[in-house]
Amino acid sequence: MQSFIKKYSIFLMLYIIFQPVLDAVTGTMMRFNINITFGVLIRMIVMAITVFYILLFLILNRDNKHGFRIMGYFVVLAIVSVINLVINYKTKTLFVPSLEITTLAKSLYYPIMLLGYFYAFEELAEDRIINRFFPKVVFIAVNIISIIMIVAHFTNTSFSSYSYYKLGESGWFFAANELSAIVSISFPIMIWYALKKINTWSRIYYWLTVVVAIYSALLIGTKGSLLAIIFGICMAILATAIQFFQNGGQRKFKAGIAAMLVITLGGIFAAYPAMAVSRTAELHSDMIKYKKKQAKTKKGITKDQKKYVETNKTVSYLFSGRTVYFENAAHNFSKATPAQKAFGMGYATNFKKVKQAKLVEMDYVDIFFQFGFIGTIVYLAPLAYCLIYLIGAFLRKFKYMWSFKWAMLVASVAVGFGMALMTGHVIEAPSVSIYFVTILSYAMLNARIFLRTGEDPYTIDVEE
Predict the structure, then answer these.
(1) Residues 344, 332: contact at Cβ < 8 Å?
(2) Which of 147, 140, 117 lies closest to 54, judged by CA?
(3) Cα–chain-centroid distance for residue 278?
(4) pLDDT (tens digit, 9 = 90+) per residue, 254-306?
(5) Vertex 96: Cα angle to 91 and 102 (nearest 5)
(6) Which of 53, 155, 210 is nearest to 218 (CA)?
(7) Are 404 and 192 in contact (CB under 8 A)?
(8) Distances in Å between the alpha carbon of 104 and those of 50, 175, 322, 348, 383?
(9) Which of 116, 111, 113, 87 is nearest to 100 (CA)?
């Protein structure tokens, strides 16, 4: 059994590398109107095996108190989920079992995989196997995404990120928002790995892969990926500057690293006018002007379009119309039964036709409407615990938080939590949450060791 624990822990590390392949295959299948969601099927199988892995780990660990708490949480989560389904089956105008169950299964992916990866890291950290896999696997995964994006771009086989504008590209990946979130969350980890590997200028080729990743990410044309890349590079510049003054050695080399980062950031700003994201900002303004003009004609505009054009222009651009979906969902929730308000309204609140089912696409908001007051507290408890724990570790060990490892982990976790609000498709999207929970688990393991021993776990880092 201990052998299975070790092997499956290694599998979970390597599993990250295959994520872009799963998504590209799924995207290709959807291009040919094959409705079997290959990626979801594989991920659900892995999730089921991970449940067994967690139970086995708890049994072999023999920490009864800890195991009881973990199992107790998942029992409560399962009860809340069943209550949610039963209430909505009896209450909703249109209850579609396939949609409700699939959405619930995707929702359960994050808490299961978060705990699974934390135990995997704990297992692999003991003999430093972890250094051979993380963050190297994330680095490789992002490089695979970059290659797919560039091949799709030059062969003219990409999906459009914004089909109505014919702008932006998502390569062979079907969902541009999910792709954007993946790249955004993973990018700081890629920077960390590259900067740790560049110990001499002869290894500058590691940074060239980062530049290629930036180029492929900017092809997507989403605001989120652009802002996340800028934030990641700025955090790296800040970390380099602090290291320059904290450590007396290698000052010339650190100054060179800082110059490389600043040049990269300058290149992004110089290229901005030619980016798809720049054009979408212009088209957004043009669309609002057109809708306002159309509203004065006999044909007029719909109620949702009217809400959209009346929203603050900057807010409507940043949230891409999500405020309208929020108002509609909030209206449905206000009319919900007390039971639904407590345990949620399931997928997309209440709708009369499947085509009318719309998510707000802001994770925390969608989770609240899906699970209600009680369900949301239970569902988000692990994330809330991790966030509070990491903020505490950051504040208590502030002066040690400026190594590339800590600075980029902080950046990645911050981007993950931020994008869950701004663009959605993070917590409840298995293709994205796998990256988020991996990085979150790794940060939690490091913080836990740091706070427990008082020493930064330098042995858990990029392998030299």
Answers:
(1) no
(2) 117
(3) 23
(4) 999 999 999 999 999 998 888 877 776 666 565 555 555 555 565 655 655 55
(5) 115
(6) 210
(7) yes
(8) 17, 20, 22, 12, 17
(9) 87
